[in-house]
Amino acid sequence: DTVYVLNGPNLNLLGLREPEIYGSDTLDDIAAMLEDRARELGLAIDMRQTNHEGMLVDWLHEAQAEGARAVLLNPAAYTHTSIALLDAVRAIRTPVIEVHLSDPATREPFRHQSYVGMAAARTVKGLGARSYLVALDAVAEL
Ligand code: DQA
Asked: pTM higher than 0.95, yes or no?
């Protein structure tokens, strides 16, 4: 069973980008951690990143078409703006877990709204890179 791990804008700069907020692990580091944990759980990981909103929509559709077990989705700033992503999460039957490194609820007011969160099966946030691992563990419980 494959779990899609979809990452939105600016997360390609993880490790360099505001490390006091997001930590020093890169997306490749997180992919390596997830692969180890996935192996233990008998799952496979398909980790991707894009800076383009519509690409995330296409990948969500693909996750369903390919029969993915679940999607871990860090929509980054599109979390707070994208009705297209909310609709895409609602449009597929594949369960989507929303993931954030930081806890947007404790940051600027414009980060308090999550459109994706309105449709996500679960949200894991505020644990740094570990948010992804906790979210992967949650896939087993879905
Ligand atoms: C983020 C939180 C978002 O508010 C922000 O725009 C990001 C990253 C996180 O993982 O903490 O780019 O999704």
From this structure: yes
Over the range 4-43, which residues count as b (16 or more CB within 10 Å of their CB) and which as e? Answer: bbbbbbebeebbeeeeeebbebbbeebbebbeebbeeeeb
**Residue of the nearest CA to atom 8 in ligand 1?**
76
All domains in the chain, ordered by first residue: 2-141 (3.40.50.9100)
| Interval between CA 44 and ligand 1 midpoint (Å) | 24
Residue 74 CA, chain-centre distance (Å), reads 3
Q: pLDDT of 71-122, one tens digit each?
A: 999 999 999 999 999 999 999 999 999 999 999 999 999 999 999 999 999 9
The one-letter code for the residue type at 11 is: L
